[in-house]
């Protein structure tokens, strides 16, 4: 077995095809974050992107995308915005995490959305989280029937608000795959304001994330395409979402809306229309992403599992990582597991957001 490390752009077409074939054989949901196009997009905006190519008897048997930092500190590719992480390996490949990290000159590899089934890194998982999903594999009508059974008031209220939006604000129109870049700029402005309003760090203030989203909006590949969905009222955008799709999965990523229309719940209307359009396009699942939210609880039909933690190789670099990262991680976990503390933290973030607004 041989492991060589390259920049993503140095992969040839044959290697990219091997990556896709190995991923298709994994049996895992076809997340667009695990396709070579996502890694290539990250490499276009970050100089630290790398891929370890695992060869067995001269044949590609695995691909491990990551970002390499100082002191041997590695991170999942796109850490902070990637909702599905891990290595793409041939089933049954005899490889250990320690071997892989050594070949990459890494003492630690950090992840926050490691997909279930990544047994190579499983022992390093610090905590498990759920990622709610919407199953539309049997069509939107079947999903809507399920919603009526599990939360009839939610569906009835949301549909009534959509009709009211049309009467009071103008004709409602939905576009599943909007190509107008001005609509993307509008969404990013809404999302930045939402981050500030809720006391959170504005992701779009980081240039590499903004550039990555713009780059992915222009990416059109069967396994990874940017999809901008927009809900209009009287030809004015009132809610929008940018995500990534493969043939069978829509990864929900950046949703937001115009707060002037908040009383109509345009974000919920948008998600229902997205589910309908996704089903019509042959997509079987919408992955709403890790994190608790009322709208996810109302819309979901099931859950995936993801993990947060790190895989380490013994040495001073791993010890430094534990000293710098683990206390904060444990503190966050302590708060998350206690609803009263979590509620207090949420209210504090809201107050910080209001102070920013003032």
Automatic annotation (TrEMBL):
Q: Annotated Gene Ontology MF terms? A: transferase activity
The UniProt record lists the BioF2-like acetyltransferase domain at 155-296
SUPFAM superfamilies from the entry?
Answer: Acyl-CoA N-acyltransferases (Nat) (SSF55729)
Which Pfam family, just one, is annotated for this protein?
Acetyltransf_6
Give the keywords, sorted: Transferase
- In terms of superkingdom, the source organism counts as Bacteria
Question: What is the protein named?
Answer: GNAT family N-acetyltransferase
What organism does the UniProt record list as the source?
A: Streptomyces tirandamycinicus
